[in-house]
Amino acid sequence: MKPRIAVVGxxxxxLAAAVAAVQRGxxxxxxxxxxxxxxxxxxTAPKHPGAPALDNGQxxxxxxxxxxxxxxxxxxxxxxxxxxxxxxxxxxxHGQGLRLPQGPALIALTRxxxxxxxxxxxxxxxxxxxxxxxxxxGFRCDPRLSVAELCRGMAPAxxxxxxxxxxxxxxxxxxxxxxxxxxxxxxRDALFSGPGAADLLLPKAPLAELLPHxxxxxxxxxxxxxxxxxxxxxxxxxxxxxxxxxxxxxxACSALEAARLTQDIAPTWSREAAAFGYEPIVTVNLQxxxxxxxxxxxxxxMVQLPEHTEAQPNPAQFVFDQGQxxxxxxxxxxVISGAAPWVERGQAATLAAIQAQAExxxxxxxxxxxxxxxxxxxxxxxxxxxxxxxxxPDPRLSPRLVVAGDYIEGPYPAxxxxxxxxxxxxxxxxx
Length: 431
Prior knowledge:
The protein is an alpha/beta fold.
């Protein structure tokens, strides 16, 4: 008889868990309290007919996300069709900056660093030397170090052009607050996972088409049941009324929801899950056209923006040209990672600052804000020595209750890959 598995949560961790459980012969029931699947990487319905579907933010994958890419293939998605693959580049609006050529990542990094136009010879050699030391140490360090402390003594240009933007993009936490241990793990995976591991993979399709919708179709075709718009109020109710005879439960909901559901049966674990600090991400989508009405463009699909101007700090660290990525000319996504200060300032102040950034990019352009999306708990704050709860809230419950999510104890920051791997591990533990 097939084991019955209830999955609570339909984000990427829950979908990964459900697919893996079905593959291992389980009868799966998935419950999601939102009206759509996808969690913090989802799409919403367009505001009016003919308008593009809105994602809850601009997401980036990298070539090293092997579990995520394999899961997409399992549910019938060809990553090459829905993702724009480009070698890693951190370039400014003029196309100048770090560009990694194709090939083995370490060789590509060396070539990219040595050809960087804005760094001096000593700065290039110092960066390669520092990277070599990290590699010799196995990309490990004292877990109490921040990224800023790890890079103490590094030239300001290297911090400004490479370390700080990579850190906030990967960990969504400023370098002076971010875990050096996790940052080095991300570098290790990008540099030692084979050719193409450091490549940027930018969604050419709405996030829903990358995994949530195809996974839903795949699960239903394989006999799973999916219930949307229903919040699980208690685990006891779930195991008796909604999924009678459930042999195992996978909590793949948010840390706060998991804390609520386990507060009576695993109070210590519940307190750990509820203790996270969070960092928001804000995405502002706007249209930009020249005075002649033609859509504008950027030097690359993803462009790095300066942190400060003479007048004020800039909010967005990156801007994405959706004309090059999704075939929507004139549409741009300005992304603010580690956005807590701007969320506090409010939407009006943030939009005004983004408008100023866009005007600096395209003087005299016709600009129109399309949408403002603030994901207030986009990721946990990835700080040094952060304690993350284990996948099993209580050893006594281990045969039937496992938690999955990017916040569960593990080596990855809050990424899609971390969520997928955690979901798959939970399914393997139960089935």
